[in-house]
Amino acid sequence: MSDDAVKQAQEAAAAAAEAAEALQVQAQEAIKKAEEAAALAQAALDAQEQADAAATATAEPAAAPAEAPVAAEPATTPAATTSGPLDAEHLDAIRAGYAFERAALEMGALVNGDARPDVPVRIPIAMTNRHGLVAGATGTGKTRTLQVLAEQLSSAGVAVFAADIKGDLSGVATPGEGNERLLKRTAGIGQQWTPETFPTEYFSLGGVGKGVPIRATIAGFGPLLLSKVLGLNDTQESSLGLVFHYANNNGLALLDLDDLRAVLAYLVSDEGKAELEGLGGLSKATVGVILRELITFADQGADVFFGEPEIDTAEFLRVASDGRGIISLLEVPGVADKPALYSTFLMWLLADLFTDLPEVGDLDKPKLVFFFDEAHLLFKDASKDFLAQITQTVRLIRSKGVGVFFVTQTPKDVPADVLAQLGSRVQHQLRAFTPDDAKALRATVSTYPKSGYDLEEVLTNLGTGEAIVTVMNEKGAPSPVAWTRLRAPQASMSPSPDASIDATIAASPLLPKYGTGIDRESAHEILTKKLAEAAAKVDAETAAEARARADAEYEKMQAKIQADAAKADKKAQAEYDRLMKQTSSGSRSRSKSPEKTALEEVLGSRTTQTVLKQVITGIFGMAKRR
């Protein structure tokens, strides 16, 4: 057989294989559609049978024995007879999808027309380090979901860190209060509710608000995060990076804003310009922008957030003596006034944890779960470099035993690269009042696996305390989408009393270590001293030059004075000699007597000569200045 014939035969065989594969796919799709149609038909048949049975029961009430008691099971599990969007097959799939072998966090019960306590919805604790998202419109129960997760993680021995923006989470340290409505709701989802408290530590940014102060040094914060919080462009961010590089190489500790301002001012001064030769230098205009932004930053109260002692982020991994994880709450009242600072500071905490913690791989439970509330503040106006750092941190920090849950209003608040790494999702109600809302709703629905729900309709009709949940199962695959009625927190859903918070803070073992700020020698003091020494040296050199010039001028004047004095003395002597000569001549012409006259004796005396010299000198104005 020729090569062409072989080639044609091979091509024909390949085409036949492709056609067969296509037919197989079509057949599978047809089978699937047939199964779905059969399931729908069966569901319709079951519904019709139930309707017929109900009609028969209504028409023939006497058929039931008078002494028969009311069945207890339907009363306690009404959902078993309530029609919902899911058929029996879907229910079984969800039940199996959340039946994990290892420890899990109890989220609540499936909703299918009503709650189904026989179908619990859970999150494997081992998968909480694969991160998660809690989203939903304001007032739909996100904070309560966060509290439920935090309480159960603490009970499982996992430390928790969360920002308490409105103060609501502080109630985890106070036992909850039961009431009839609460107990009815919890019983309906199979939750055995009891009041409980959890070990809690309160923190504050730099001591603003209640809590142990959290501080960071400027050097620890780094140029990238600082550029984000200052709103700098790429050029200004690059210049700030050069400043940090110079300070690090020259032993100038950047602890607070004064240190950074001092280095910036020094590097554009006459004394400091030469320091950056070969490194590109700094533009005075760029430094001016950065300094102005630092002033604005300080006016927002940021001065107190930077300095020492810098918090050791390992403090957030502590476990109480009873084995429960400590819930660390960052009390940040008024965060709306400084959103960039708040979000960037939390990102610093996360980045610092990533830097300090060792690699541990996949653990049975994480060391810490970090809840990032109001996450949209972190990503707003973020540069590409900043987003890249966030993405890398979230992707890699799970191997350090840390899970991160972002809490925000809609999934679109979180960049796609970050959203793709979030294994668990708890989506509360979304509202579609505007075209943008509707677009966001459709985008959210498109990110979920296929389910038996019309998610666009369900997401806009969820009640408070209900959510659409999907998690990463123990094999790393997404669980079925489950409409869930969530558990109630066991601690108080109201803020803890101020007196209780104050007592907890006063008793904290961290307060002696971090409560009082310290101010050691750093860049500001070093450069101030250096500039003062340089200024003193310049002043000394200037003074020496001035003294030298004054001494030279003085010597010149002294020489002139002495010359003028000598000249005057000489002239006075000449005048004196002339007078003496005249006097002597007149006297000799009048008298040949060898004896001196009285005038000659007077003029010839030393005293007379001195007086005459002084008079003559005074006449010519040449008296010496003493």
From TrEMBL:
What are the AAA+ ATPase domain coordinates in residue numbering?
128-436
Q: Per its UniProt record, what InterPro entries does this chain match?
A: AAA+_ATPase, HerA_C, P-loop_NTPase, T4SS_component
Q: Where is this region: Disordered?
A: 45-86, 579-602
Biased composition range(s): Low complexity: 45-82
Q: Which SMART domains match?
A: AAA
Q: Which domain of life is it from?
A: Bacteria
Q: What is this protein called?
A: DNA helicase HerA-like ATPase
Task: Print the organism lineage.
Answer: Bacteria, Bacillati, Actinomycetota, Actinomycetes, Micrococcales
